[in-house]
Amino acid sequence: QVQLVESGGGVVQPGGSLRLSCAASRFTFSSFGMHWVRQAPGKGLEWVSFIRSDGSDKYYADSVKGRFTISRDNSKNALYLQMNSLRAEDTAVYYCAKDPPTVTTRYFDSWGQGTLVTVSS
Amino acid sequence: IVMTQSPATLSVSPGERATLSCRASQSVSSNLAWYQQKPGQAPRLLIYGASTRATGIPARFSGSGSGTEFTLTISSLQSEDFAVYYCQQYTNWPPLTFGGGTKVEIK
């Protein structure tokens, strides 16, 4: 059973920074693309970012491009999201999610429990 | 690609059939997934490829459609099925996009 555990959320002031982590286990982490997906309080789901299994390709939603950076350390089975210049509208639960086994498809076959980021003064 | 789900809320009695719709602003072929989310929980993958059930998903959940029109059907609602359901396209990205969700509530 795939396990994804996010951490690093908290309260941060507008303009501040935060780094989220996702610890992966019970699957071969280095073989799968990984995503961050967020959900503002009471709202729907929004895809944030994707990183290929070897870290060679990264993609971002327009809403976070230039402010957020996705990375991974396959030796530690860990996924990261560095969030800079945070805004109130970045307030959300952030989930890490795993790509399916099929290399060319991009949906989310496993999810972590999420970590809450609150941007407020 | 904009994904539109309807209705926003669906009131159904236990044991009844529920039919949820998802429309894409342009063709996504069969590159569509459905997720279920219960309060305070992460989403769970139900369907991918428009009609293939994910591992462990009961047979009462079925998906259909292709192109721009998709349907998730729950044949006989159980108490544990009352939740919010999201569709997501993965044919043309970035970005990967979700519908706004349909809340299935007890009638």
**Biggest chain pair interface:** A-B, 22 and 23 residues
Instruction: Tell me the number of strands of chain B.
Output: 11
* Oligomeric category: heterodimer
Q: State the secondary-structure class of chain A.
A: mainly beta
Number of strands of chain A: 11
Radius of gyration of chain A: 13 Å
Largest sheet of chain A: 7 strands, mixed
Q: What share of residues are in beta strands of chain B?
A: over 45%
Average pLDDT of chain B works out at 97
**What percent of residues of chain A adopt helix (DSSP H or I)?**
under 10%
Q: What is the helix content of chain B?
A: under 10%
Average pLDDT value of chain A? Answer: 97
User: N-to-C terminal Cα separation of chain B, in Å?
Assistant: 33 Å
Main sheet of chain B?
Answer: 7 strands, mixed
| Measured distance between first and last alpha carbons of chain A | 39 Å
Question: Mind explaining what this structure looks like?
Answer:
The complex is a heterodimer of chains A (121) and B (107). By secondary structure, chain A is mainly beta. In chain A, 0% of the residues lie in helices and 48% in strands. Chain A has no helices and eleven strands. In chain A, strands 2, 4, 5, 6, 9, 10 and 11 form a seven-stranded mixed β-sheet that branches. A four-stranded antiparallel β-sheet of chain A has the order 1-3-8-7, with no helix packed on it. In chain B, 0% of the residues lie in helices and 50% in strands. Chain B has no helices and eleven strands. Chain B has strands at 3-6, 9-12, 18-24, 32-37, 44-48, 52-53, 61-66, 69-74, 84-89, 97-98, 102-106. In chain B, strands 2, 4, 5, 6, 9, 10 and 11 form a seven-stranded mixed β-sheet that branches. Chain B has a four-stranded antiparallel β-sheet with strand order 1-3-8-7, with no helix packed on it. Chain B is globular. The A-B interface holds A 35, 44-47, 50, 59-62, 95, 100, 105-114 and B 31, 33, 35, 37, 41-45, 48, 54, 86, 88, 90, 93-101.
